[in-house]
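A quick aside before the break. I want you to see a complete sequence-to-structure record at least once, exactly as it would be stored in a machine-readable document. Don't worry about memorizing anything.
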Amino acid sequence: MRTRVCLNIIMDSLQKRYKEEISKKLQESLGIKNPMALPKLSKIVLNIGVKDAVADKKNLEKMVTALAQITGQKPKITKAKKAIATFKLREGDAIGVVVTLRGKRMYSFFDKLVRIVLPRIKDFRGVRRTSFDGRGNYTLGFYEYSVFPEIDPASVERLQGMEVVIVTTAKDDKDGLALLEALGMPFTKEQK
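That is the input. The structure line, written in tokens, reads:
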């Protein structure tokens, strides 16, 4: 309960800082006159494709629990869109879990990601600047989900990857990069 209160205080501060400080600096640096045209975070989508979900349903249940602990929101189970015989996969089989965060939970998760999770990664030197999709959205992959503080590393039986997609209202990668840098995303230094 105590960590929830601390996270809410952190989250409120990031959302408040964006409205009061960051948006003004971003407006100046991008040369945008209309404050409504500024890029901002739209949503954050977390996705885990579960290994052997078809063979053992318990793996899927563990990932649902883990993603719920990480985000504080109940995940949705994703199903296969088509059958693939080599993977023994039928159309409609449960194969992963996904969560979409918006509003306060989104800002809270982003702040936790930047301040707590990324610095915990071994040999971390920053995230790549090339993971944008051309429309200002950023994708970040984790080799294992146990880097999140809510997950006890001793309880993890096998490595499982995770994908985090940060969706912005930016019109291109340059604006998306400027927004994420202003919000505190630790990008790698540019090579000259």
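Two observations worth writing down. The beta strands are 41-49, 76-79, 94-101, 138-142, 162-168. The chain has a mean pLDDT of 82. We'll return to this after the break.
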